[in-house]
Amino acid sequence: MPGKRKKRRSHDAPGNHKRPKVEQQTLIQHDLLRRYYTQIFTLREYIIDKLPIRSKNNGKKRWIDEKFDRGEVAKTFTEFLDSTYIGVTQTEELSQGYILEQWDIFAQKFGHQKSNKFHCKRRQQNEIVDFSIWLLFSKKNSSIGIGQHLLVQGYRKSSEFYSCNRQENDNYSIPGLTSIYPNSYVNSMKASPWPQILAKLDGYGEKIMLDLIIRCGIFRPVANSPCNLYQASGFPLDQAYHIQSTESKQEMSTSVSPKQEFRTPSSIRLIRNRLMYARPELNSKGDIRLGFRHTHFFNRYSIARESGEDVSRIGQDSSYILMFIFPRQFGLHNIFSSGRDNSQSIQSCCHDKIREKEIKDKFPSQNSIKIPKRLRGKPIALTERMLALHKKCSYRKLVEYYCPASTYKDANFKYFDSNTKEMINKSIEPTNTLSENATHERSLDEHATPVALVSSFCCAVLDNVIPPNFWGTTELQIRNRRTFYRNVDQFVKRRRYETLSLHEALQGLQIKNIEWLGSSTYNQKLCQSDYSKRSDLFQEFIYFIFDSILIPLIRTNFYVTESNLHRNQIFYFRHDVWRLITEPTMSSLKINLFKEIPPQQARKMLSSCALGYSQIRLLPKEQGFRPIMNLKGRMRKAGSRLVLGRSINSMLAPIHNVLTLEKKTRPDLLGGALFSVGDIFTKLDRFKSGLKCSEPFYFAKVDVQAAFDTIPQAAIFRLISTILREDKYTIGRHAEIKLGNNSENAAFNPTKKWVANAHFPGDIATFAEKLNSSIAQRKKNTIFVENMTHKNFDRSELLLLLSQHLRYNMVKIGDSYYQQVNGIPQGSVISSTLCNYFYADIESTVFSFLRPEESLLLRLIDDFLLITTNASHAKRFIQTMHEGLPSYGVSVNPRKTLVNFQITINKDEILRSEKSTFPYCGCLINTKTLDILWDSAKNKNTVANSITIEYTRSPGKMFQQKLLNAFKLYTHPMFYDQVHNSLFTILQNTFNALEETALKMHAYISGFSLNKRPSTELIIQALEVLFHNAEKIISRRSRGNKFRRKSDDGGDPKKVHEFHIRKGSVEWLAITAFHQVLMKKPTGFTSVITWLESRMQILYSRRGRALEKTIAQVKIH
């Protein structure tokens, strides 16, 4: 007889059973979410994990087996369970026991009665959400940042927070809280299907739902792009430090602060952009000071210890220098373990003035300074020796020796020859560039000091200032110095966006036998702790040399800038040379564009105008300069030398967002404006498809001189006043989070971007609806987080902001303030939009004779292109533009005008293009068929200057991705559209794109030293991936084109854009392009060339006949 079944104990509950293990394969492997949460589940998996094994009526099995009601509603419910992501963190800030305890108190105090009936579940879900908001506002949880949780946005505490009685109806307010503005997150968490989920969870629903809402992050897929997510509840992902610890996933907590992170040398980048655009320092006579600035700590401190004094009794100045070199040892702000204070600096490093204030605050007296044991003795002596060497160093002689300006000197010791002086005298014109009429002027980059000489100068200064014993003794000293100077050379020679990590700066340096790092004897074996401490000290020392000696040295002696022509290459101009070649241009700007403001009036204007002032710099062109106003920079607040204010562009964001909204809703007001080069295709294709007969095309291109500097301020203000049609606008913000380019390396954090969008007051669309319709389009693997804090702006408020920007734009040049009296500020976030609206008004009034059925007028900022079948209209357009439009301030540069027909203006024949293609904005437009080709010849001489080499610990790993990214740059759909372009054009564009990619690959590899270049196997592997995916990349970009043309048969418009060139043809083009490039410079690529030739033979043997048409069509250079 079988035994009786053991009766289940009545007190069985979810907490009395061990949670079942969720299989590893059921976890969501979402890379981006895994950076912030310890566990990622679908909603179904989360519920299964939370339900006890012996839940009532075997509910756990029911959730696993999907045994729900059938029908369309059930299908939607199931999809919701499987598409909703739940992020879980291990946090003790709000324990589950505490939450349930407070839930009972809340229910009793405010009249909640538990009920399991289904018709009450909606009310119960509402109460759970309201309780969650109430709990996050309680005093106990004020330390975790209640303002950060998405559900509490829009609520504020009232005085009756703990004593309020709630109403017995569904439209109650949360006890003690006031709603300032609606919160869509709260509404969505109360809406279907959450009440249905609560009902199906039976008696375990409250516990699971409370834990889900308060302790977890909830994410939903965007409807039209499931690869994107938006956050529906939880602590916002854009406030990542509340829920992430980058060092260890086991330590994740909502209270983790980024200031607690420890940075390794490989993650510390030496901030090379600090080299750029430095102002010279002048002495009392007005001459340029060389060496270091007078505010540099080398010049502020001196040797305090008298000769023969005991080492332990050092002076205050010597101890201060030690704090600058080794701030981490004194517990000061440092690059290794400290965060960044955005209110004082935009850099990770610590400014000298901020450092001094920090030292004085922490060590108010000399007696409070305690020197760490490792820094006593030899480190003190070497530090004082370094100060003594600095006092003896003749920086001017070193500059003159290593970076001479003798090639520019004349009898008066001015750094120019007679031809250069003549060029400068001709340059004083009422325009924003130097004269381009002279035929004998020297290129501006010839005035720059060669980078090799700059590197030699820096190494010479370091060799004279840094005591040799800092590097060790005997052979170790020689080897370390040679290695370090080689690293300095790399730092100086790298391109604009290339960085040098501290790990690279330490490469090759040996620290074991450096005496000042420790007390152990020579060649003695070191324990791990001793070696680690030595490494910490030496890392701080090396960072100090780059950050506090090398960078200030370059800034004080050279003006470092990029060029408009050379892209990423940077140039080093001696400050005295730069001052002389820019002084005429700056004088011209002060006369024609600005007026000087007396100091007292300037202070008054700055106090009354919120926008503040900007600074101006000159960007070298081929034969002149372009003034650039830095409106992105954050200036110091008035009355404070340390605290940074907001940038002008950030304050102009509201008017920029509103103009962007008006631009999207009424694009017809912008005429032929192009917002990117890709817009050429959209307009050109529509024009071509609308032509009724095949007539010859007349092309005319003109360039407006000094476009931004000649727009009348009053006219543009009146025009924008008519464009802003609403009395009120609302601006909302959201965050976009996605993985960076180095997503395979956990050390790299995801990138975050905060985007603001304006909308009309009557727009009631939810954030999810806006994602579906516009925001998430063309986005991939991105998480969106909405900020519920919306701001309203009156039309009058926006116009006042615009008026201040136009009429009271202040610029600081040297120590003087100037006000812009002509034109609009260049470099502003709204400058291009204002320019587009202004020239669109010219288009609609002056050129109203152009009919859209026969003419197309394109305009990219100030570059006009007219394509028409009417010859008289083309001539009238050229005649009108060359005569000028004084009321609009428009005049053109005759030397930049280009046509494809014969025309004479004022007895001067306009430059005519005899070719079959017409150049415009980096493209070539066929003058007979309007096919669009990529202008490959334009960039061939600047390929080496256009790349940015990724110098990482494993540079080969990034090589393949760099190669694919280089090819993707040339795969815009306009080059491969089979309806607009002919087969020859498509094949030629494909070959040109692959040839440019090959040139970039060769330049990229050549940029590495021989021992760090990618191996032949890695190059071949990367090429195989490119050859295999090239056709797919082009096809994907063509199908994803935002411009949709209807097919003739009414079919899918996507099919019209498909790329129909065979994969074998694309591979042949790729092999030919790479073989042609590498054969010109075969050194180091012999094996790769052999592999390409063998692959070509195999491909031709398999698909020879199919390739004959491709070979015949393509023009190989």
TrEMBL record:
Enzyme superclass (EC): transferase
Biased amino acid composition, Basic residues: 1-20
GO annotations of cellular component type: chromosome, telomeric region; telomerase catalytic core complex
Subcellular location: Nucleus; Chromosome, Telomere
Principal location class: nucleus
Listed EC numbers: 2.7.7.49
Region ranges (Disordered): 1-23
Domain annotation Reverse transcriptase: ranges: 600-925
GO biological process: telomere maintenance via telomerase
Function statement: Telomerase is a ribonucleoprotein enzyme essential for the replication of chromosome termini in most eukaryotes. It elongates telomeres. It is a reverse transcriptase that adds simple sequence repeats to chromosome ends by copying a template sequence within the RNA component of the enzyme.
Family: Belongs to the reverse transcriptase family. Telomerase subfamily.
Protein name: Telomerase reverse transcriptase
Organism: Blumeria graminis f. sp. hordei (strain DH14) (Barley powdery mildew)
Lineage: Eukaryota, Fungi, Dikarya, Ascomycota, Pezizomycotina
